[in-house]
Design a protein that fits this description.
By secondary structure, the chain is mainly alpha-helical. The protein contains 6 helices and 2 strands; from the N terminus they run αααββααα. The longest helix has 17 residues.
């Protein structure tokens, strides 16, 4: 599995929104600036995440994007699938876009790819954005960074 730039940006934006969860809606420009994500690219990403129910958007002066659910209820796997589709390394082990293979019954490679899929999804489907926030804060504290980029 290789994470696309779109998913990378989405995860970074989601961590930012998670760290600012109690603040409410955050404008795209703020996310774009703080996370160094091109604004037009970010707009498309956030729109996709709104369409799948991960984000809510608010119009108006205090408008922007906010999480649709608490950060402890949104997983990395959910966000990556929304942008990149199936996480499986090959179609014959995918739970979302399964396609049979002519060698499926006797293929040892399939068994290994199933293990790979299970290992990756096991991490991505249990790692929440609340977990990522804890990691971000711990990482900044370890580096002795006095000026936290994120507001908590």
């Amino acid at each position: 599995m290789k994470l696309s730039k779109k998913s990378d940006y989405a995860l970074r934006a989601m961590i930012f929104l998670s760290l600012n969860y109690k603040k409410g809606a955050v404008q795209i420009k703020e996310i774009s600036t703080k996370e160094r994500i091109p604004q037009k690219f970010l707009e498309n990403i956030l729109l996709t995440l709104r369409k799948v129910g991960v984000l809510n958007s608010k119009m108006g002066l205090k408008g922007g994007y906010e999480l649709a659910r608490s950060p402890d209820l949104i997983t990395l796997g959910e966000v990556i699938r929304a942008l990149d589709g199936a996480i499986a390394p090959v179609d014959c082990v995918s739970m979302i876009s399964y396609k049979p293979c002519s060698e499926e019954v006797t293929c040892v490679i399939r068994d290994v790819m199933m293990d790979v899929r299970n290992a990756i999804t096991g991490v991505l489907d249990t790692m929440t954005f609340a977990d990522m926030c804890k990691r971000a804060v711990e990482s900044l504290e370890k580096k002795g960074n006095e000026a936290l980029t994120y507001s908590i």
